[in-house]
Amino acid sequence: METIIQTTDLVKRYRGRNAVDHLNLSINQGDIYGFLGPNGAGKTTTIRMLLGLIAPSEGQVRVFGKDLRKDRLDILRRVGSLVESPSYYGHLSAVDNLEAIRRILGAPKRRIAEVLDIVSLTGEEKRPVKGFSLGMKQRLGIAAALLGSPELLILDEPTNGLDPAGIQEMRSLIMSLPKEHGITVLVSSHLLSEIEQMAGTVGIIRQGRMVYQDTIAQLRQRSAGEMRLVVSEPEAALEEASRRGCDGMLRTGELRFSGMDDARVALLVKALVERGHAIYRVEERRQSLEELFLQVVEGEGQ
Ligand SMILES: Nc1ncnc2c1ncn2[C@@H]1O[C@H](COP(=O)(O)OP(=O)(O)OP(=O)(O)O)[C@@H](O)[C@H]1O
Q: Distances in Å between the alpha carbon of 108 and those of 18, 73, 94, 101, 140?
């Protein structure tokens, strides 16, 4: 698989402090990469370096296999971005705003109708932009970023400030880009819940460092389950379990075991029943992705 973005030990230092700290970020072609981290973690600073807006203090950025320092213009011609709220001429329509950008880019005229269609603003294109909702403005920003037919789109917190319906529209739009238009997407957010349904891969940063980078499927797998048993005599049952090689603990009257597969659970239940224990409940509790995310971000359990 082709790597579209690769950073190597990327550092940005402000007043002796590393806002981005030896970041190794890797994005595959056709992926939606969710770039996650709490406010101030260094997402925007990283994105600005990826777009050549600020220079790294150390390290390297390669985009499309090329060095950003050497082939900056070549690379940026193939990249679209939405960083911070886009600015418009409010009294002008969506089409007129896009036309101004199209001329600068030298994109073909028909591209305006195409991008309006991609972001579902067809039908609204003649209205002055100042009457647009925030969600429509954000979608117009994406339309503008798509004018140059980019292969890579970089979106910094595109759902910030949107209501649930706006978030859903933005999500559908982003999901359509790799599938229907072959565009690789990097999208940042401070909320996993906004990203998890669309991202194939997530990179989580904390204090400028990458603390997790893998597929969302892998992240799900890490949210391992814990077995909980409610029994008539918990202390004796815990000892019995331990004799059978199942080491657990007692919390609020429940027995808790981690890393048990089905066969072990069956054996333990059988043994306890044979010893005369009454078993009231056997349940599995999986950590939610959000809990796991917070754990990673807060630096526990690594
Ligand atoms: N120009 C600058 N001068 C000094 N410090 C800066 C500058 N830009 C960013 N920082 C610092 O770098 C750190 C990372 O900021 P950054 O904006 O990249 O975080 P972020 O993850 O994008 O957060 P947010 O979601 O709040 O935008 C912060 O501590 C910030 O104060």
A: 42, 20, 17, 11, 18
How is the chain split into domains, by residue range?
3-221, 225-285
What does CATH list as the number for 225-285? Answer: 3.30.70
Residue pLDDT, tens place only, 16-41: 999 999 999 999 999 999 999 988 99
User: What tokens were used for 99?
Assistant: 């036309």
In this structure, which residue's CA is closest to atom 29 in ligand 1?
Answer: 40
Instruction: Give the ipTM of the model, two decimals please.
Output: 0.94
What secondary structure letter does DSSP report for 25? Answer: -
The protein residue whose alpha carbon is closest to atom 5 in ligand 1 is 14
Task: Calculate ∠ Cα 164-170-175, nearest 5°.
Answer: 125
Nearest partner of 149 among 194, 102, 192, judged by Cα: 102
- Cα three-residue angle 95-96-102, rounded to 5 degrees: 85
Other Cβ atoms within 10 Å of 248 Cβ, number = 20
Q: What residues flank ligand 1, with Cβ below 6 Å? A: 14, 19, 37, 39-45, 190
Torsion 267-271-274-277 (CA) sign: negative
Q: Do domains 3-221 and 225-285 have the same CATH topology?
A: no
Q: Would you state the structure tokens that stand for residue 183, as one six-digit string?
A: 């565009």
Considering the domain 3-221 in this protein, what is its CATH number?
3.40.50.300
At residue 212's C-alpha, the angle toward residues 208 and 214, to 5°, is 135
**Per-residue b or e along 249-277, where b marks 16 or more CB atoms closer than 10 Å to that residue's CB:** eeeeebbebeebeeebbeebbebbeeeeb
What is the pTM assigned to this prediction? 0.82
Q: What is the separation of C-alpha 246 from the centre of its chain, rounded to a whole number of angstroms?
A: 37
